[in-house]
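User: Please predict the structure of the protein below. I'd like the answer in structure-token form so I can feed it into my own downstream comparison script.

Assistant: Understood. Taking the following sequence of 257 residues as input:
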Amino acid sequence: MNNSTPAIAFENIEKNFSSLKVLKGISGKIYRTEVVAIIGPSGCGKSTLLRCLNRLETIDGGHLVVNGIDLSHPHFNHRQLRQLRTQVGMVFQQFNLFPHLTVLENLILAPCKVLGKTRKESAQLAGLYLEKVGLFDKASAYPEQLSGGQKQRVAIARSLCMNPQIMLFDEPTSALDPELVGEVLQVMQQLAAEGMTMVVVTHEMQFAREVANQVIFMDKGVVAEQGSAHEVLTNPQSDRLRLFLSRLNRDWQANAN
């Protein structure tokens, strides 16, 4: 394991929604260039944890440091939030593209507004990342003219335009038709190969097995198992994880048929 300062460190973090305890003392470390897959049943707290990592949700207890920024500090301020958002990109399940803007306009908005780049600089950057995700020819299209897989690849390119050091993915393929999943995972696989630090909430076990360095299995708001992808997915220690993986495998086989 890498002994340098982790890109993300969380210790005993808690998150409540009114009386519902969603995260119950979660701890972990994610190092630079690592790909970490977070898996677990619906409602176990996976997406909430991810949203805490870029402060879309605030934590109610514990200690959380992301890219050197202490998100749990009582005096965390707007300047630090802005800094965090430029360094940590997020790709959502539902794409979140602006429907009234073209693909190119979706991509240049944040670099212009947040990074202060000129429209020309932002457009050059957008062209570079659209080419990277194989959609350079779609720059003038509107989101409604794209397939789900294309929308998600545009969403990834949009995040990359901010030159993030860490990328968070919240079930990026779950809203896609099965035949479109591969094109999105291929882009993510390429990012991983280039050394992007990535945290991925996913049900795609093949991706986790082949690409992730570390897998975190969450259950009922706690980390139930954690380790290398091979350890966790090939040799699960708990009945709960064995049941979860066998259920996913059954669903995958049913969809394949």
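That's the full token string. Residues 6-255 form a domain with the Rossmann fold fold (CATH 3.40.50.300).
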